[in-house]
Structures are given as C-alpha cells and as structure tokens.
C-alpha cells in the first residue's frame, strides 16, 4: 500500500470512526462435487453471522464444484479462489507445492488437521439387500457387481480403494493379502466412472451393479431423493476409512483481494456449533462432540482407519497406490 | 508493360498477415505450447510414456472406434444426404434441421442420454441384452456415441455437392444404357468422393478427440474401454502435465499423419 493510499484509508476510517467501515466482499469457495448443498446452506448462515458484527458489509459467496483434482488444478492455473474445500489433503498439497499460493504446512493452521467435518465410505445396495451384502468380504462373492469410480480421476474413489485395502490388510494380515483382496474386488467392478457423481448415476439411474461404494453423505442423499428410500439400503461395513475433506485459505489470492480476515473467519465458523449442525444436517459427520452426540443415531459407529495413521498421509499413499505404476495400475496390468 | 489484376479483397500482404496472426493465436501457439511442455522430457521418458501398454491399448481403441464411426457415418450420412436432396416429403425441412442437433447439444448430455438408453436395463439396451451382447460400457457403445457426435459432417459436406449434380446427367447416362450401378459408379461417385472424403476426415478427427459424450458410455476399464483423452485427464489429475502433453503430442502426430494421407488421396482423385 502506498503512503498516499494509506493516508487516505486512515482519513476515511477516521471519518467513519465508531461505525466501522462498510466493505464489499466477494468470496469464491472452490469445492468438490458433493458439497453443493452443504455450502449453499452454510453460506447463508455465515453471511448472517458475519453481518451480526459487521452490520454494513455486503458479502457475496460464490461456489464452484467439480472433481477434486480438477478443481485443484484450476486453482493452480489461476482460478482466484479465496478458500478451497476439497475432497483430500493431497489436492491442497499440490496447490501449495505447484501453485505456491499457500504455505506447505497449511494443514496445521486449523483444528483437527483442517477438517471441520468428516465422512466415511459405506455401501449402497438395492432395497432388501438381495445379494446379502454385509461386509467387504461379501463384495468378492460370485455374481456381485460393484460400482466405484476410477481412483485415478476421483478423490472419493481413492478413499474407497484405501478402505478396501484396510479391510484386506486386517482380514489377510499382510500387504500381499491386501493386494490380493483389492485385485479380486476390482475384478467385480464392470464400470469405472470418472467421478463420484458419475458412479451414483450409473448405479441409481442406469441400474447397474449390486453395490455402490459411496461417500456416506452421497448415500444418504440418494436415499433422500424421491423414492430413494424405497429402492436402496445403506449397509455399514465393519471397517472403513475416516474420509477427511480439508479446508484452507488460499493466502495469495485472499491477500490480493483483501479477504484474508473474512476468509479465515469463514473457515473457522465451520467449527462453531451452528456450522457443525449444518454439516450434520447435510450428512457429514461433525467434529463437535455435542453436535455429534445429537446426531449419533444418524451415524452408526464403526472401526475407522485414518489416512495419516494407517497410510502415512497422502504424501505416501498417493505415489504408492495411485500414481502411474502404483498398486492400482499393477492390479490392472496383471489381468 | 503488364498490368496487375487487382484481386477482390485488396492487399495481399494485409490479408496474409492477418491469416498468419489469426492462425498463430488460435492454433499454432497453443499447439506449440504443448510441444514445449512435452519437450521438457528426455526422448527416453517420452518414449516410455507413449509406448506404455495402457496408452497403446487406448490408442488402438480411440482411433479404431473413431474410424468405425466415420465409416458408419460415411454410408448412413451419404444416404441421409441423398434422401434430403433428392426427395421432397412432408417434414423434410425438420429432418434437415435435426441433422445439426448433435453439434448444438452439449456432448455430456448426449453421453448421459445414450448411456441411459443403451445400458443392459435401458429402453434399447435390454433387447441387446436379450440377444446376449452389451452396447453401453463396451467399444460398441463408444462407437455409438461417436457416430452420434460426428453425424453432421458427412451429411453436410455431401449434401451441397449432390444438390449441384443435375438429375439430367443421371437420366442421360441411363438413356445411354448405363445400369443404375454404373450410374452410381461412374457418374455420382467420382463427383461426390472429394466431398465425401472431407466429411469422413472431419468426422474421424472429431471422433478421435471426443471426450464428453464417450466418458459416460465407455465404462473406462483400463486396457479395455479407456480412450486416449481419458488417459490425458488421468495424467492431469496426477498433476503430471508433461505426461499429459506427451499423449497429446502422440495424438496430434498420429492424427496429422492420417489427415495428411486423406488429403493426398483427395488430391489424387481430383487430378486424375
């Protein structure tokens, strides 16, 4: 800021002293596919919350949704997101690494590894569960066909893959056994869509497959849609993965647009009881214990592995499983 | 002293300059940027990427299905053009307008609609399932989507040429004793072939690069129904820009060679 502009700013704020300067904010939240409904509701809540303390400010919040990797690339390539709320930390890591628009330790800046809400991977089956699917082991039974997106192009699919791997590891006791299980599993997958929504369409609208591996919140949404509850059941397996979709302020963009304060507040407010309540209502598992207790009936308890403890974080898991030549490629090359 | 004949549009220098700038901005610079990206790899790395089994399988699939789709449209498209030019019937104008719809429709919409129709439980797909084969999620489905998307090319290139051939020529040939097949072989085909080849080449080139409509119907199984543009997206999702541009370069070179061959063929036909 030049001296003259600073002086001007100082003068104007002096003039308006006491009434705080009214500002216009336009925030862009770049997110992944299934959070559309969540943030529509949350944005309205946040604007109300912000205006309670900044009466004259005008706040407009725009949302952008798409596959998590694609969204991350858009931000690297210059999409001016103030905040990113993506499906996995790995995608925000890449924004930090390639785009250099936020520090690499971004995940330590907010509580709980910057994930205000979590989800997990569950099974969606046809009503009445005709194939009798109860756990991961049933997915590789004869005549069972499984729908899941391609982990190379879908963040959700990577969580699916890792959840399956965790089961294989626990049931078999070794990495070799885990690989064998996952290889078996993907032999039962006839279609690999590019994104989670694509797979949901394949399973729900086109009637393909017996089981859909889905984000818990997507599975709930499928039930909520008209007639969904008459057509599908949710099956919670014995073990799954704690899917942690993180959030971060994109420092460089926010600084340029002068939105650092409000953008940070936007993310912090997600952790407040009001924010947590909205997350739970949209079928994301809240972090707040009180809110979690209130919605306990909605979210059944199950064993959850985590990406950091069990897989050494995305920095290890991504190259090992999903990059070219990784485990996922190997199981298809072997066929 | 010889006088220059002034052309209709003045200023050869100006128009050529404009053409070059325009082409550079729209076509050459973006393509060159792709080559620059790919050139950051050593030759060995580049070669390893484009000869990976998955890439080769996808290459065969993409070019194969595009070829079949272009051939199907080559036959059906000519037939459509024939019907539209040579006959008048109620609703002809409407059908004529419908030919262009595949261009106007977002390809993703087309892909989702075709998939819903042709899955084993879909309106049409169930009959195929009864007969024991699948359309959606197989190369057949990909060909189908490409046939839909590239439908207008052959029709629209053949149609005006066909309209320019007076019926009298065919009648004259018939009077001179030519059989219907001979009329087609010696009168119509030579006149139509250059336009037909253009339409065929356009349809083929468009089919090779098509992503939006195919992705829903393909099933995207590695080694089986994975198209080349999807592999580019896969690389991009790993933030592997160089790998993605390498495949882009591969597609570009193969397409360019094929289009060049078609062009040469066309020139030989036009100058017997």
TrEMBL record, chain A:
Gene3D superfamilies according to UniProt: Periplasmic binding protein-like II
UniProt GO MF annotations: molecular carrier activity; sulfur compound binding
Keywords (A to Z) from UniProt: Periplasm, Signal, Transport
Signal peptide interval: 1-22
Example of a GO cellular component annotation carried by this entry: periplasmic space
Predominant subcellular localization, coarse grouping: periplasm
InterPro entries in the record: Sulphate/thiosulphate_BS, Thiosulph/SO4-bd
Top-level taxon: Bacteria
Subcellular locations according to the entry: Periplasm
Keyword Ribosomal protein: no
UniProt key word Transport: yes
A biological process from GO: sulfate transmembrane transport
Family: Belongs to the prokaryotic sulfate-binding protein family.
NCBIfam families linked: 3a0106s03, PRK10752.1, PRK10852.1
Protein name: ABC transporter permease
Organism: Pseudomonas turukhanskensis
TrEMBL record, chain B:
NCBIfam families attached to this UniProt entry: 3a0106s02, permease_CysT
Alphabetized Pfam families for the sequence: BPD_transp_1 (PF00528)
Major location category of this protein: membrane
SUPFAM superfamilies named among the record's database cross-references: MetI-like (SSF161098)
Entry keyword Membrane: yes
Membrane topology: Multi-pass membrane protein
Family per similarity comment: Belongs to the binding-protein-dependent transport system permease family. CysTW subfamily.
Assembly: The complex is composed of two ATP-binding proteins (CysA), two transmembrane proteins (CysT and CysW) and a solute-binding protein (CysP).
Keyword Transmembrane: yes
Source organism: Pseudomonas turukhanskensis
Protein keywords: Membrane, Sulfate transport, Transmembrane, Transmembrane helix, Transport
Protein name: Sulfate transport system permease protein CysT
Domain ABC transmembrane type-1: 59-262
């Amino acid at each position: 800021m030049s001296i003259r502009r600073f002086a001007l700013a100082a003068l104007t704020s002096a003039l308006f002293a006491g009434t705080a300067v009214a500002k216009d904010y336009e925030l862009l939240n770049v997110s992944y596919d299934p959070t559309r409904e969540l943030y529509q509701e949350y944005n309205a809540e946040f604007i109300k919350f912000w205006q309670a303390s900044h009466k004259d400010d005008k706040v407009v919040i725009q949302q952008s949704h798409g596959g998590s990797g694609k969204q991350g690339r858009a931000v690297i390539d210059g999409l001016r997101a103030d905040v990113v709320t993506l499906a996995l930390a790995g995608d925000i890591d890449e924004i930090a690494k390639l785009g250099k628009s936020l520090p690499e330790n971004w995940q330590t800046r907010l509580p709980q590894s910057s994930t205000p809400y979590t989800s997990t991977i569950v099974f969606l089956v046809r009503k009445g569960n005709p194939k009798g699917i109860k756990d991961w082991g049933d997915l590789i039974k004869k005549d069972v066909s499984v729908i899941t997106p391609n982990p190379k192009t879908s963040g959700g699919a990577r969580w699916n893959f890792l959840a399956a791997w965790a089961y294989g590891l626990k049931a078999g006791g070794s990495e070799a056994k885990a690989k064998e299980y996952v290889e078996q599993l993907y032999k039962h997958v006839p279609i690999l869509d590019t994104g989670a929504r694509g797979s949901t369409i394949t399973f729900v609208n086109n009637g393909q497959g017996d089981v859909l591996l889905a984000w818990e919140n997507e599975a709930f949404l499928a039930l909520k849609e008209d007639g969904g509850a008459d057509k599908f059941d949710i099956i919670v397996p014995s073990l799954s993965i704690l899917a942690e979709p993180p959030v971060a302020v994109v420092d460089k963009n926010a600084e340029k647009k002068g939105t650092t304060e409000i953008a940070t507040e936007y993310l912090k407010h997600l952790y407040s009881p009001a924010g947590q309540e909205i997350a739970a209502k949209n079928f994301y598992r809240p972090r707040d214990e009180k809110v979690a207790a209130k919605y306990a009936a909605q979210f059944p308890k199950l064993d959850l592995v985590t990406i950091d403890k069990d897989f050494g974080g995305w920095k290890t898991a991504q190259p090992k499983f999903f990059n070219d030549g990784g485990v996922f490629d190997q199981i298809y090359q072997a066929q | 002293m010889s006088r220059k004949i002034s052309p209709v549009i003045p200023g050869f220098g100006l128009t050529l300059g404009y053409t070059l700038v325009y082409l550079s901005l729209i076509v050459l610079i973006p393509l060159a940027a792709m080559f620059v990206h790919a050139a950051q790899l050593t030759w060995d790395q580049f070669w390893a990427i484009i000869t990976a089994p998955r890439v080769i399988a996808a290459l065969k699939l993409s070019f194969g299905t595009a070829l079949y789709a272009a051939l199907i449209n080559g036959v059906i498209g000519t037939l459509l053009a024939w019907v539209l030019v040579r006959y008048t019937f109620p609703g002809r104008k409407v059908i004529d307008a419908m030919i262009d719809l595949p261009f106007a429709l977002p390809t993703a919409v087309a892909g989702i609609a075709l998939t819903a129709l042709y899955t084993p439980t879909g309106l049409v797909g169930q009959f195929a399932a009864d007969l024991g084969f699948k359309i959606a999620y197989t190369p057949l489905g990909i060909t189908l989507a490409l046939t839909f998307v590239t439908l207008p090319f052959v029709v629209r290139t053949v149609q005006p040429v066909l309209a320019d051939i007076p019926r009298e020529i065919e009648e004259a040939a018939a009077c001179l004793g030519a059989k219907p097949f001979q009329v087609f072989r010696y009168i119509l085909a030579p006149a139509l072939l250059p336009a037909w080849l253009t339409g065929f080449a356009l349809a083929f080139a468009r089919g090779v690069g098509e992503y939006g409509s195919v992705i829903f119907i393909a099933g995207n199984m590695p080694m089986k129904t994975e198209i080349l543009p999807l592999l580019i997206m896969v690389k991009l999702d790993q933030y592997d820009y160089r790998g993605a541009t390498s495949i882009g370069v591969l597609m570009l070179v193969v397409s360019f060679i094929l289009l060049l061959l078609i062009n040469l063929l066309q020139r030989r036909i036009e100058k017997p």
